[in-house]
Write the structure tokens for this entry.
Amino acid sequence: MPDNLIIPINYIVMAEAEPDLSTFENKTGLAEDMKFLASMPELCDVTFLVGDTREPVCAVKAVLAARSRVFHKMLYQAPSPQRRKDPPPRENKLRLFLKRSSEPLLNLQNASQSRGFTQQLAPIQEPTSQQHQTLIIEEFEPDVFRQLIEYIHTGCVTLQPRTLLGVMNAADYYGLDELRRACAGFVQCCINVDTVCALLASAERYIQYKCTKSLVQKVLEFVDEHGNEVLNLGSFTLLPQHVVRLILAREELQADEFTKFQAALMWGKKYCDNNPSTSIKEVVGNFLEYIQFHKIPTNVLMREIYPLGLLPQSLFVNALAYQADPTSVDPGKLSPNRVRRQTQGRSMSVQSSDPYGSNTTLSSSQSSELASSDGKHSSN
């Protein structure tokens, strides 16, 4: 055998894997069709009257039950309020029996008599409430509940900062864990200067739900870091009074004292515009205890604050005296109504029933607890 014998090598060429054409998916088209289905009342079999305005939101019971155990129990394992209020008439069975018994007789009547007699003895139709349920939802706002229903039917929803907290709590309430987790993830990227006040305002509406507590803490931490920016926002004036106090009272708030005063004044003017009979001095007076006026430069005190006539004379004089000689003024007199700060524990709460708020308590963790020395802040 020759030494230079060349033995050919056979290469196996791997053909490119061909795409599997046996499976076709059109999830986008399905989502659009299901969204259309939920938008057509005549195709739905349940209507929710949502919120204080009782706005109607329609849905398909079978879809809700398949996607949420809570909805399944609500719609199929317990009678609806409508069914309890409108029981079927007791005489239905009797009339059915009379109709069957009278059929031979009816066949002997002429056409006109037959039609009249049949109509008279025909069984009464079952109430429509037996087929189409109507339920009242008071826990959530219409926009929030509408987004929840859209997600249940289509598998997708556009999250928005204004309704984020409501949707997250609704998802948790109805057992939609994937949507709740998606909302929690969206929180991290949607907290900014433009959305922070809207998130705090929505927290007031859903303060009784557990998902709210974690979000409030994150929002307040953002407020602490961007104090001057947040206090200068026009949307800051839309917050409830006790939330404004909650922010101004935080020791972690990185804002100068004059900016805090301007924010309180801005909020007070907005409040007085909506309540003309209220004195601006009275409204702003609710926030003075959270502002350390002795830390505001003297020229600013004299030029910007004193002419307004909003400070008690003693508070103003003590602030000026402190700047002249810090040892000449008792620190307790610099802010006579300053709230007590408790070093034990790291929680914070301020409660109010003012016209812009409610009787609930907005609270956060990892901050000093605030309580009024005279119990004033639970009633203002």
